[in-house]
Amino acid sequence: MRLLDSHLHFWRIGGPGQVWPDADWPRIHRDFLPADLRAEAEGYGLIGAVLVQSQPDDRDTDWMLTLDDPLIRAIVTWVDLADGGAPDRIRHLAAQPRVRGVRPMLQGIADTDWILQPALDPAIRALLDTGLRFDALIQPRHLPVLHRFASRWPDLSIVIDHAAKPDIAAGELDPWRDGIAALAQLPNVWCKLSGLRTEQAPEQPVEALRPYVAHLLACFGERLMWGSDWPVLRHAGDSYGTWVETTLELVGPQTPDARDRLVAGAAAAFYNIDV
To answer: Which listed site, 22, 154, 175, 199, has its alpha carbon 20 to 30 Å from 182?
Structure first.
């Protein structure tokens, strides 16, 4: 098996623009860099990864661009889409060979409808002009809003990070289930099978994830991509290999082609990565 990880992070505590995680996240409050990833993912066929921003700060994005490691096959950056200089910043980033997308961290913005404001249109048009993708870091409250956004910009490739973070700790499937199904009807929307363990309560078994995973598979099919959300997954007590094995157990028997599409092919197609 080969893995193309669609979602992971690197950070250096105290590095440029770094504010999270802090000491309240003891399991991940240390540096995580490519060498740490190689050590933890050894033996699992990792052929590359998409490095995703973790700080809402241009300095963090600029730091990520300095990381020179062959495992980094694509980079998703942060841009302040509401800033008047956003279109120029997007064009600058798009000129960097590994940059494939932008993530504005919508989950941390109190205004659920923020992404719909007309003031962001120049930045969204710049994404379209440059071919960059849009990573949607959202919560269930954003699902109807993202549907309106994705319908308004049908040529913009969008991927839902962490399956929109359903409230697994409370065992809630609805209205998340309907919102996901509606978004999956839009051909420009994809989804990441990642980050679900972090949404569980500490005492919940892995088995509690099964209905969520089944729904994502049924809705998105070939537009569902596996991601580790490493090293954040360590906050839930998982290791890289544990989440790989857990995912394969939850998705159940698959043909070799279907499994390869989930763990490598979908991410390669969405982010235009040559594997």
So the answer is: 199
Summarised one tens digit per residue, pLDDT across range 4-33 is 999 999 999 999 999 999 999 999 999 999
Output the domain CATH number for residue 197: 3.20.20.140
Check the CA dihedral 32-38-44-48 and report its sign. positive
Q: Which residue, among 67, 63, 68, has the nearest Cα to 78 in the 3D structure?
A: 63
Domain that residue 101 falls in = 3-271
Q: Determine the Cα–Cα distance for residues 152 and 71; give it in Å rounded to an integer.
A: 35
The residues that bridge with 190 in the sheet, in sequence order, are 159
Tell me the backbone φ, ψ of residue 225, rounded to 5 degrees: -125, 140
Rg, C-alpha atoms of the chain = 17
Q: Indicate the pTM of the whole model.
A: 0.97
Alpha-carbon distance 159 to 167, whole Å?
19
Strand partners of residue 49: 5, 72
Task: Provide the number of structural domains found in the chain.
Answer: 1
